[in-house]
Amino acid sequence: MESARAQARLNKIIMYVILVIMAFIMIVPFAWMILTALKTNQEAISVDPFYIFPAHGWHWENFAEVWESYNFLILYKNTLLMIFLRVVFACLTATMAGYAFGRLRFPGKNFFFSLILIQMMIPSQIFIIPQYVMVSKLGWLNTTMGLVFPGLVTAFGTYLLKTGYQGLPKDLEEAAAIDGCNIGQRFLNIMMPLTRSSMVSLGIFTALFAFKDLMWPMIVCTNSQTTTLSAGLAKMQGQYGNNYPTMMASAVLAVVPMIVIYIIFQKQFVEGIATSGGKL
Amino acid sequence: MNEPSLKKMTAAEKTEAKWAWAFIAPTMIGLIILNFYPAINTVWQSFFKSDPFGRSGKFVWFENYQKVLSASETWQSLLNTIKYALIEVIPGVVIALVLAVFLNKKLKGTSVFRTIFFLPMVCAPAAVAMVWKWLYNQQFGLLNNIFHTNIAWISDPKIAWISIGVIGVWSVIGYNMVLFISGLQEIPGDYYEAAEIDGATGIRQFFHITVPLLSPTTFFIVQTRLIGALTVFDLMFMVMDKTNVALKSVQSLVYLFYTYAFTQNNKGLGAAVVLVLVAFIMVVTVIMQKLEKKFVFYN
Predict the structure, then answer these.
(1) Which of A18, B36, B127, B162 could connect to A251 by a Cys-Cys bridge, CB 3.0–4.6 Å?
(2) Residue A223 gets which letter from DSSP?
(3) CB contact under 8 A, B178 and A274
């Protein structure tokens, strides 16, 4: 008995050691990013391994400098607007289609749903060239509409919401039908509010995807006044790649807002990813 | 799913069908314009030679495919893509599984660890890649400084693909881990209690209970991550400069597609590369489905 308890304790210690080492590996890049952002370039390229912290004061003004010189306000605005519109469009179209596929009977249902499944199986790179040609013909290059364009509808979201609607009990809707509610009222007043958690999952997934995407904004928004944070960083790196504190300060500015949102809404993020399980 | 047939519908069924069609209309029209037409158009464009302005000009049959399939660059990129996928998916899944099992043990501080491991998931890969590029810097980077080495992490063709793979694993562990934890929570506790009574050790329990019962989750993760890794672009684009000598031995098929279609503005060639990629992913998907039947244990 005594040895079993000792064994359990040893196991616990081993687990903690592994977890702490892994956590350390995960944290180091973030820590080094922040520490470099607060140094002068001279300090950043000093090759003394114990020179971890800035020696001559913390250069918070690095952030103010990149904020000014790279117009971060505009990058934030563009990114936020794109995310907002993509989330609204994705949730709106997916909740309607998801309700129809999950609860209603209609001719052509199997055929249309198979189109949804097919879209989910095709790698999205095959859409990019013609989507780009369409955006450029519509005159939407370097506009928010151009950024939002490929995300106006979502097959994955429709699938996710359909599963959400299918899981709801039948009697609620039947009772409303007896009371004389038409399908539109039933959808809007009774069913849609009940799929809130699926909607939140889809919203988080869509926002993260849009925030992280690099290739599409690089293609359609080549102007640094109209582009997003991700594509903006790519541009900065091309121009000022050797000023390390500047680069790290802009990386910090690009990741901090989403990290703050994640820490506040952690439960929703983790559940959203676990339930949607989409490919990010 | 049984469907009502168009001819023999009651009035109520007709109303229901009208609502349904109206509800799916935006999504279906959107999918046709944004996805199905473009997919077909990409195939069409792959048969055209692009003029210097990027417009598609002459119909050239399979000339683009001939060019793509005879270029060593394409096969090298395909090999690079496979190498990246293996180095990201296998360690990424194994490490995430171990961490998930630990975090599922109700230890103290679980939520703090989970928050930390998941952190890279909410960061833009562009920023992540910039930070790692700085860590890997040969002259001034943290890694060479700490270990007193002088390794060209991202410009030595023999090492660069591993360095990129490490960034990939680092980025994806938290995501895999979260999916594993939710899979683990669905395994009934009775199995472990019974094993405990029979005197099975933790490691035996892991291999005889956790691994088989978790196989649907594992399969799902491997499949989605594999597809994700086979279409990798961001990390390579941000870490590898265009002048990097190791670029050729690291760049993925999607990177090559981007170079052809948008840097060199040769849409026909880009379309042909993307179709090679799609064909390859289809083959992988079919193989995965065969493996699923063989190895995945469904209750």
Answers:
(1) B127
(2) S
(3) yes
